[in-house]
Amino acid sequence: MMVPRRSLQARIVLFVATTVSALWIATAAYAWIEASHELDELLDTHLAQAAALLVAQASHEGEALDMQQSETSYRYASYVAFQMWHEGSLRWRSTNAPLTPLSTKTKGFETRTIDGKAWRVFATEGAEHDVSLFVGERIDARNDILMAMLRGMFTPLAIALPLLVLAGWWAVRRGLSPLRALDAVLANRKAASLDPVTLDAAPREVHALQDTLNGLFARINQLLENERRFTQDAAHELRTPIAAIRAQAQVALGATDNQDRALALGNTIQGCDRAVHLVEQLLQLARLDAAEVTASSGARTTSDLVDVARGVLANLTPAASFKHQRVELVSPDHCHVLGDAVLLSALTRNLIDNAIRYSPVQAAVCVTIARTGSQQVFLRIEDSGAGIATQLQAQLGKRFVRGLGSGEDGSGLGWSIVTRIAKLLELEIAVETSPSLGGLAVQLTWPLAQGEAR
Amino acid sequence: MRILLAEDDALLGDGLRAGLRQQGFLVDWVRDGPCAERELATDAYQAVVLDLGLPGKDGMEVLAAARKSGRKTPILVLTARDDIDARIRGLDSGADDYVVKPVDLFELGARLRSLIRRAHGHIDDQLVVEGVTLTVAARSVAFQGRAVSLSSREFDLLHALMSSAGRVLTRAQLEQRIYGWGQEVESNAVEYHIHNLRKKLSTELIETIRGVGYMIARRSPNQSVAAK
């Protein structure tokens, strides 16, 4: 028994939650990169502009600025610093600015660490190169801004994700309810039950599953029914031959004269042969029953009908010779038709066997394979026997229906086999009185198949 | 004892006929429903073995028709169908016994003898009339405790007369009992066998009813008591 995997529902919900989180993280990463790039550009521009303004101011006020410290109380004040140097001495700086130059460069941007903190510094000079100006900004400030932005993105996700999981769980649960209903119906069935499963308002997806299941049940049912019928038929039909064998054997045992005993023993053997023939035919029928259910696998291949008929005739000619019957095959050298050779052989054998069996001594049996005017292949078996009354012709093919007073011990199964194979291969059966020989004429006509082999 | 066998299967019919003949039955064999019906109507048989799957007319119909027309001949149905429903239907339609194939020939013979016995109101295998003891299955006869050897025809004749003790049987009826189909009835055969029986048993046992036939009269109360 297979251990059931995690429930479909849990898997779907987990998948959705993971995917949404991953997408969100990817989006955030992209936003981080984009935003930090834009922020760098913007803030760098601000630094440069601030520096330009300060340089202009410094040039204007000259030496008046002396070691002044600028006091600011803005929120980001500690994150921004500036220095103005005049001819090597620090003249003006913000309170948080160090006493050493902020930058090693005299012009342009630089990122460096001062007192363990990362700074972005812009350096510039006055027009006469006597004033050096540094404007710095702590990198932390930039990161804080980015983090704030990310927080703005992640907070809704943190709230939405559980809600999303909950909604997904509910939606999946609703969506899967027909499957659960099917599960419940199947679980409540008796194990041996083969009745069709019925669900109220099943959606399309489950409908297909239900149809497939019901189709399977129907086929299994059919197979079981066939099996049951086979067993019944076999038990029923074998009783008479076995009773005959038993009676003949008992007669042989009780016979007082050798001739009677020999006769009874001969009859016993004949009875055994007949029982074997019957069993073979029953098995053929059982196989056909199964073939019908498990789709016609034999119907797709082609075989040489003439070849098959020749083989069958070779096997049956001794029986015909025994009855002084004349058997002939009229056919082209080859004739390929749709159908498995085994099926065709069973079909042909039963038909010719019937003709030989039910025709009297010295009768003629003629097998013809040819094409009709519309190029359809036909197999025709005619005999000069007594034929079959029209009203009995309709009964042909019912299991165990035998001709009246035929004097032969057919099982009545031959025709069943013929009609079953004909149905499987989609052949048309015609039964009539033979115009040439006067007995029974049976004709099987193949449908015109596309791409039929010549 | 003359039996009608209605069986369409050649091998089985042949075997049953031969086997029953070995047991001393006279067997006439028909192979289809209409023939069985026609033969049943002749009243020539002590019992019938009827196969149900007869061509032309089903055994069941033959059975029903025979009972409907008031025929009391014991009918043993021989069939391949062993389901309870079929048995019940068969017995309800008037079959006296129902045997499923395959059957032992001796069992079949015993069942037939039993049916015939009961049809004559006897309950065991021995008939005892006027000091003559006739054992049907063993085909043996004893007179006053002494075994008597009889020919097959003599036995059948004595059996017929003893089974119907107290009733007159016509010459034609007796001929029917001792000859099957295809057996040529010799003229005066009945008289000849009666003469022999009187010689081997006792002259008073079989009475001749002039112009009618023969009978074994019952002078003492029915003595057909089980001797075993």
Number of helices of chain B: 8
What string gives the helices and strands of chain A in order?
HEEEEEEHHHHEHEEHEEHHEE
Low-pLDDT stretches of chain B: 222-228
Low-confidence stretches of chain A: 403-408
Specify the overall morphology of chain A. rod-shaped
Q: How much helical structure, as a percent, in the residues of chain A?
A: 40-55%
Largest beta sheet: strand ordering of chain A:
1-3-2-6-5-4
Beta content of chain B:
15-25%
- Measured by DSSP, the beta-strand proportion of chain A falls in 15-25%
Q: Work out the number of β strands of chain A.
A: 13
Note the total helix count of chain A.
Answer: 9
Which two chains share the most extensive interface?
Answer: A-B, 29 and 25 residues
**Largest beta-sheet characterization of chain B:** 5 strands, parallel
Helicity of chain B, in percent?
A: 25-40%
The shape of chain B, in one word, is elongated
Q: Strand order across the biggest sheet of chain B?
A: 2-1-3-4-5
How large, in whole angstroms, is the Cα Rg of chain B? 18 Å
Question: What's the average pLDDT of chain B?
Answer: 86
By DSSP, the count of extended strands of chain B is 12
| Oligomer description | heterodimer
Order of helices and strands of chain B: EHEHEHEHEHEEEEHEHHEE
List the helices and strands and how they pair.
The complex is a heterodimer of chains A (454) and B (228).
Chain A: H1 8-61, E1 68-70, E2 80-86, E3 89-94, E4 108-114, E5 117-125, E6 131-138, H2 139-175, H3 177-188, H4 204-254, H5 258-293, E7 302-304, H6 305-322, E8 326-330, E9 336-338, H7 341-358, E10 364-371, E11 377-383, H8 390-393, H9 414-424, E12 428-433, E13 440-445
Parallel strand pairs in A: 1-3, 8-10
Antiparallel strand pairs in A: 2-3, 2-6, 4-5, 5-6, 7-9, 10-11, 11-13, 12-13
Helix pairs in contact in A: 1-2, 4-5, 5-9, 6-7, 7-9
Chain B: E1 2-6, H1 10-22, E2 26-30, H2 33-40, E3 47-51, H3 59-68, E4 75-79, H4 84-92, E5 97-100, H5 105-119, E6 126-129, E7 132-135, E8 140-143, E9 146-148, H6 152-163, E10 169-170, H7 171-178, H8 189-200, E11 206-209, E12 213-216
Parallel strand pairs in B: 1-2, 1-3, 3-4, 4-5
Antiparallel strand pairs in B: 6-7, 7-8, 8-9, 10-12, 11-12
